Amino acid sequence: MKIAILSRNPRLYSTRRLVEAGSQRGHEMLVIDTLRAYMNIATHKPQIHYRGQALEGFDAVIPRIGASVTFYGCAVLRQFEMMGVFPLNESVAISRSRDKLRALQLLSRKGIGLPVTGFAHSPDDIPDLIQMVNGAPLVIKVLEGTQGIGVVLCETQKAAESVIEAFMGLKQDIMVQEYIKEAGGADIRCLVVGDKVIASMKRQAKPGEFRSNLHRGGTASLIKITPEERSTAVRAAKVMGLRVAGVDILRSANGPLVMEVNSSPGLEGIETTSGIDIASLVIEYLENNAEPGMTRTKGSG
Ligand code: ADP
Question: Is the pTM of this model over 0.90?
Answer without folding.
Answer: yes
